[in-house]
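Reproducibility note. Readers wishing to regenerate the assembly model reported in the main text can use the exact inputs given here. Chain order matters: entities are listed in the order in which they were concatenated for prediction.
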Amino acid sequence: MATRRTTPPARGAKAAGRAPRRQSPPLLGAPLPPPLPIATIERLLGLAMSRGADFAEVYVERGTHTAVTLDEEKIKSATVGMASGVGIRAVQGARVGYAWSDDLDDRTLDQTARTAAAVAAATGSDAPVKVSRIAMPRHYHVVEPLADVEIARKVDLVRRADSAARAYHKRIAQVTAAWADHSRRIAIANTEGHYAEDVQDLCRLHVSVVAQGRDGERRTGFYGGGGRVGMAHFETFRPEEVGIEAARQAIATLGAIEAPAGPQTVVLAPGWSGILLHEAIGHGLEADFIRKGTSLYAGKIGEKVASDKVTVIDDGTMAGARGSINVDDEGVPAERKVLIENGILRGYMFDKVNAKLMKQRSTGSGRRQSFKHAPMPRMTNTYLAPGDLTPEEIIASVERGLYCKAFGGGQVDITNGNFVFEVAEAYLIEKGKLGRPVKNATLIGVGPHALANVSMVGCDPVPDPGLGTCGKDGQSVPVGVGLPTVRIDDMTVGGTKVGGGRMA
Amino acid sequence: MAQTDLLELCERVVRRARRLGATQAEAFGERTREATVRVREGEVEDLTRAEGKGIGLRVFKEGRLGFAFTSDFSDDGLELFVRRALALAGAAGRDTANKLPDERLLKLRNPELHGLFDPEIEALDADWKIAAAKAMERAGKAEDRRIAGYESVGAGDFVAETAIHSSEGLHERYRGTYVYLFAAPVAKGEDGQLQTSYWVDYKRRLRDLETPEEIGRTAARRAARMLGAKKVKTQRVPVVFEPTIAASFVAGIAAAVNGDMVRKGSSFLGDKLGKKIAPASVTIVDDGLLPGGISTAPFDGEGIATRRTAVIEEGVLRSFLYDSATARKARAKPTGNARRGYSSLPSIGVTNFHLEAGDTPAQSIVKGVKNGLYVTAMLGRGANTVTGDYSRGANGIWIRDGELAEPVQEITVAGNMLDMLANIDAVGDDIDFRGSLGAPTIRFAELTVSGS
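Running the prediction on these inputs yields the following structure tokens for the assembly.
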């Protein structure tokens, strides 16, 4: 099962003046400490092999989190945290031993390696394993680690977003704006002799809004974004635009009518709607589910699993995107992978362990939340290739249906393929034109059916603004999604109003 | 340095923060150990062992709050972290409600709680967990031959120490344990349809844990009974939530009685205090002292004694839940509901939150439905605390003439939580906790089911 929460894409962002810069106080300007010495890592790899494993890996992480929350125009909290540790994995066949520690003294580290090693109950050598640095691509480059940016500049972004949301309309009753960033330096070494190091920065700014209508009606709005980007990103992705978009959603849906329940033609606005792909098919193509036969897409390479208008790509190499990685958390460089090509299933997403067991190669999809977790196959940025229709043509083609403009979170059951995603802002389509806003709609479908019913694909591909977090087996990783405007026929809309009518 | 005394370390950190200029300071420390085992086809799939620790420090300086956390207990690491917390307080806005709970509140202590810590769990080895996981896997396959495999099946244990020291006169600690079993089997039908389900048990004491065989069999039955699931027509019908699903509905209520959401006007229950919002059969309680409860603890995340709070009593909304800062702003009493880990500030959350058992036998709740839905799994978050709107994906069994008939999927259940509360027309006698949320079987007189 996988869940995620968030919202939709940037609209017409314009360039703006720079945030005021001040001198950083020295305490917040401390550089990230270096990861472990190579000699220590090589010794730990040896110890992890001491019980006869056939593969071992050491993952070192040094991270700093910063967060600022503005509530009722006051800084509710400003927090900073430091978490460092080492995760050690030993693999023998399909058996995995994993141990981690946040104490980095030699004695504790050695014990951690021996704990992981014990999964293989044989004997082996504990001689250090030499590693050397692999060649690595750069899809983002950290110039000024976010951890080193003084808090006042982050507070300023949050305040600007908050003020813009409040000023948008007199019916805005509540605004909460927040910033979060995470700077981490990772090193991964394995017994294949590979060593990779990366600095990964991630940030996001988001605003949630409550609008108060007549008769106690309340509507909510949520928007934000960021990615593997520095502070300069917010000169073009302006905090004011973030606040205004959140406020706009809440105000636009005041007076919304009940969502019609039952099957309908739906048109999805571009951007964050890519969550459809993430849930409807993405998780089902992750190699662990395929190897265990628990995904309904197992054994279907080369088969038609979607409409021929559907080409799905998972791309960890998009510059600055939230789901991008230079290397995955097993030290394998990120790739751009075509998963579905014109409706035909072309490939799965592999980590090292599942790739080896299935006699495939890793696609750079082994990811983990932190040193406290063993990696597993995950998505990066997952999107649908564009078609050639304009969004106007797509909307105009629908006699009666639902236009879904902003979205919440989603979830999928990998095994039976049932997925849902929440629609935060939607409008009726009547005779090819947008009508009244509707509330409380959820879309539900079964992956292969929904993708077979994709009947039109727009020429307007939009990546999401950089908010998505995907959860699987208790581990959260940042991801991106993207979709052009699409039309899906016969999609079940979960609403409250029965008799909404069935549409062609 | 692996076994530095956690409470002493908290005290040292607070003293250091005070010396560096904090008006008030509070350190919250945790040390945890978790070990899990998963098996596959009678073999170990993975063994994971984790030992973690950390301290979170709240400092106040002239009404300005700073917070930092660290898992680095070296002298240098601690010094840097204390200084960072103080630097952040310098950057924060002033808020007079920003202070630690006062001495008077912190002095109220619960009598010693028993049953939080089980030395048998602390001493559990990997072999016990491997054997339990294998027994679950076998029992599930024996229960139904359509069980083709497992997404995962395993066992784990968790041992934690929590310590808190405050400049306002608090110096406390406790230790806790729990042990758990989980099974997520996959059933395969003759037509190739796959269905999954899961079943779990969490207990604070080993002797209270259900047997691996019971968990394995229940999980298998739950997956196999979904084979052949189909969509149904869109309609308004009576809907029954089985206990785990009822507990997830109760979680939606938990979010709405959060005193902070209420104070900000962001809860659909905000203006309903003292009003009757549900039938008299509905009593919802947050009980931080529940014997054997997974979230039972002597004090909350800021050291305030936990307690039992009736949130909805016989259908009347009686209380919201508070931490000390929100209670101060709302002129209410703190309810011991500050929840946190070391890496976060305290915020309002629930302890053992549950809908109390009613007196209707669970079987007769289904018996009373001529045509309706029995929900056994849900997808999506789908509950909006601000508006009360509720719309979630559902799987379950269709009820015909009072009997569980055929499995259904790819549908949604929707309503508004305020209407749903008022619409509860039966509360079962079969309360069940799978973790810290509990509920019995409940029935709603009518909800919208969307399908074909």
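We highlight two features of this model. Residues 31-252 of chain A form a domain with the PmbA/TldD fold fold (CATH 3.30.2290.10). Confidence is low (pLDDT under 50) at residues 1-31, 500-504 of chain A.
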